Amino acid sequence: MSLSDQRNAELRSKVQHMMSVSQNRPMAAAGSMIASMAIIGVIDIWVAVIAETISVWQFLVIRMVLAVPVVLLLSAIGFGSVFPKNFAAVAIRSGLIATGMFCYFGALAFMPIAMALAGLFTSPIFVLIATAYGLRQRIGPWRILAVAMGFVGILIVLGPSGGALGWIMVLPVAGGLLYACGVVATRAFCEGEETLTLLIGIFLAQGALGSVVLVGITILQPEVGEGGMAFLTRGWVWPLDAVWPYLFVQVFGSVLGVGLLNKAYQLGEASHVAVFEYTIMVSGPLAAWVFLDQTIGTSQIFGIAFVVLAGVIIAIRSRNGET
User: Fold this and answer.
1) What is the model's pTM?
2) DSSP state letter for 111
3) pLDDT tens digits for 137-159?
4) What radius of gyration, in Å, describes the C-alpha atoms of the chain?
5) Rounded to whole angstroms, how far apart are CA atoms 57 and 222?
6) Which among 164, 49, 63, 179 is positioned nearest to 115, based on CA atoms?
7) Of 88, 268, 107, nearest in space to 183 by CA
8) Which of 264, 261, 258, 257 is nearest to 318 (CA)?
């Protein structure tokens, strides 16, 4: 190789490295995710209150109706475009996450938020598997250990009461699987998409899902169940005087929280960023205890500590550029 060719090769290597650094910013991604989880952890506790009046399907439709104008306004004043570069990729990704979040929201009517989050947060396990085998990315032993520790923490949080819920416990776990698929799709296929594009995609997909099921309920008129089952089987309810304040808090908080979440996955590798979602295991149960008097047992505190420790390990290894 000539001196000129060697210099050109070195220049190309430096350019590629600079592009990689600009596209993959683990610390910025972590900060965005932690802020997102703090917001979402606080607003999601109010779903249990909303569930006493309306159905999850009506909740999803109202989220869309209230949130989409806000996103369009943000786009109009210069925060980015809402038009996708790859419509199919954004649609698939939005459908996966919207369905996964339905499963999570539905579970909140039956169990404390700590348990619902524990089921949902099987998602990093699925993200790890998909990243390693689907995207063929190398996953080092420290990240495997960290995710395993997080999973152990989740099992401790669930405790023996998880079995008493029967098939309902499948809801947040199914949500975790679908959410993980959406996370991997975000990084693999939607990296060039703008944050507002991904944000409006989720709200539109949730509204479409809720609308279809509400039409089905109207036609079939199934019997409305008792307790939490009513959240899944109610049709459209009116008026909404009792829940409007909670709906506004949930919806507008979601715009900010989900926007930060989408940005986090665009800034960092999915298997790195996903672990910082564990911080919601602190913000969610803490908010539920403060505002709704949902208590956390000693075993659950230990489980949450495992989850937080897993996040700390990943943060240190990511900062040092190690696996």
Assistant:
1) 0.78
2) S
3) 676 787 778 778 877 877 777 66
4) 21
5) 14
6) 164
7) 268
8) 264
